[in-house]
Amino acid sequence: MKEPEFKSQKPEHGYFEPDIQSNMVPQPESIDPNYKGSGKLEGKAAIVTGGDSGIGQAVAYAFAKEGADVSVIYYEAESDAKQTKTLIEKAGGRCLTIRGDVGNEAFCQKAIEQTVNMLGRLDILVNNAGEQHYCERIEEITSEQIDRTFRTNIFSMFYMTKAAMKYLYKGGSIINTASITAYQGNPVLMDYSATKGAIVSFTRAASQNKEFLAKGIRVNGVAPGPIWTPLIPATFPNEKLKKFGQDTPMKRPGQPRELAAAYVYLASNDSSYMSGQMLHVNGGTVVNG
Hints:
It contains ten helices and seven strands. It is α/β, with parallel strands linked by helices. Strands 3-2-1-4-5-6-7 form a seven-stranded parallel β-sheet, with helices on both faces. Strand 1, helix 1 (54-65) and strand 2 (69-74) form a beta-alpha-beta unit. The longest helix has 22 residues, at 143-164.
């Protein structure tokens, strides 16, 4: 892996602007050119938050290769969203891109409605959008940052799931992106780690809720380890990037494409007897969770 580079400026409102994947060196591997779909999601419609780049882009592409139409929710990275749309359409799927803030409940409601109106149905909800902020001292974590991180990472899952329940029925799948930090913590990502722990608990609780059970909706998640996405170089100091992912048993960071099949599995009937579980794609780290 070449030495990572990224130029980003912290804006006045206190959190990083969305990061442009095309600016990264080296480029994340979101697309596996050898991936061959087998119709696992044929005729289904999915919505992926944070689907414009990184893990979300890889998942959206894999869903399209499996026959699904995909609605991609993104914050501000217009160029990445356009690239994802092109990839999905080349894979044979219809793609809707919707720009907005998933930390806003009204937007989440509109995004779900727009997706159903345009794609005709909703079968799969992937709650993937997330943000994080590097802070070595807890005194540096402002109330505004805590509110922002929780709104993006966990409030959005409540908002999107609430709005989607009107349309999801038997065979429907909700997939939440957690993190290895939910199990190990991260001393410089305290608020982020807290949200990821909440996502694990939300996933387990929802899977046992009588409403989800009565409708036949499964709720699972993926807990990635260190994955090379635009979020990483925009978050960590350059000296930290040089060693990113080297503390895993595999001694390297993962690529977004290496997670895509886990989401396909949870979205498809292959996982029909699985709910309330987390898949750990983390380079070999054992977390026993």
